Amino acid sequence: MNIVQEQFFRPLYIFGFRKQFDAFLGNGAIHYRCDYSKGMSIELVSEFNILDYLGEADYSYLWKVLTETLTKNEFQLPSELKIIDNRMVNRGSMINLCPIGRMDKEDAEAVRNRENFVKFDRNIGYREKILKHLNRELFSLINERQLKITLGGQTSFDIGIVGQDKTKPIRTLLENGFEKVIFIGDALFEGGNDAAINEFIKSWPAGDRCPIEAIQISSWLETIFILHKRKFIN
Q1: What percent of the chain has pLDDT over 70?
Q2: How far apart are alpha carbons 8 and 34 in whole angstroms?
Q3: How far is it, in rounded angstroms, from Cα 119 to Cα 122?
Q4: What is the mean pLDDT of residues 3-32?
Q5: Among 37-41, 51-55, 178-182, 189-193, which stretch is predicted with the lowest mean pLDDT?
Q6: For residue 2, is pLDDT > 80?
Q7: Is 33 in contact with 45 (CB distance < 8 Å)?
Q8: What are the extents of the domains in the chain?
Q9: Can you tell me the distance from the alpha carbon of 109 to that of 70, in angstroms, rounded to the nearest whole number?
Q10: Helical pair 126-137 and 50-71, crossing angle rounded to 10 deg
Q11: Quick one: CA dihedral 114, 117, 123, 126, positive or negative?
Q12: What are the residue ranges of helices labelled H in 79-194?
């Protein structure tokens, strides 16, 4: 919550936004209702906790496999890449695994390190190799407990539970009477942490008009362009 406060909730208010909106955090599984019309009011509507869902034994096993994966020789990072701060973070509804580590506030060095990791990952498919390894090692939890591992952003992995993902806000909006939902994401590709949206669209009953549109983007600038083009913002 602290990271989201600093990176999203507070800046949105400081920049002058004064309307009501719902925010779905933790890969979509934590729902907040926000009202900025009379100050900055943020109310928790519902949340999902991966530790409570898995139980202590399965959660400990999951954490152990993730920790051991980072220590394997085949997944060691080259010397030019630095490990900065936390590599594994429990975000309540899911676990984020980041091989180079993640800071609450990135400085210039951390930004350069992330850019170098992105190039390294693109060249050798580093995260894809780890993803295949984790899917093998955690097969029992994937099969029995609906665990799901996806690529998160440019540098990390999101480890969560099927259904407690970005389809949750879509389902919530449709249940509340919204007739059309537009989803804009940078990881709609197979294995990405937005791919559940495409899977949800594909599962829509044949013959019924699907009210969901998914748009793949590569940067926040594309998001701004789309919002302008569709006249959501001026």
Answers
A1: 100
A2: 12
A3: 5
A4: 92
A5: 189-193
A6: no
A7: yes
A8: 1-47, 50-160, 166-234
A9: 22
A10: 120
A11: negative
A12: 108-124, 126-137, 139-145, 167-175
Which amino acid makes up residue 231?
A: K
Contact status, residue 161 vs residue 48, Cβ threshold 8 Å: yes
Residue 1 banded pLDDT, cuts 50, 70, 90? low
CATH annotation of 50-160: 3.30.1240.20
Q: Which amino acid makes up residue 135? A: N
Residue type, 27: N
Once rounded to an integer, what is the mean pLDDT over residues 198-227? 93
Cβ pair 50, 90 in contact under 8 A: yes
Q: Quick count: other Cβ atoms within 10 Å of Cβ 97?
A: 23
Give me 15's structure tokens. 């920049």
Residue 126 CA to its chain's centroid (Å): 19
167-199 pLDDT per residue, tens: 999 999 999 999 999 999 999 988 888 999 999
Q: Tell me the H-state helices in 5-107.
A: 10-14, 50-71
Q: Which positions ≥6 away from 112 have C-beta within 8 Å?
A: none
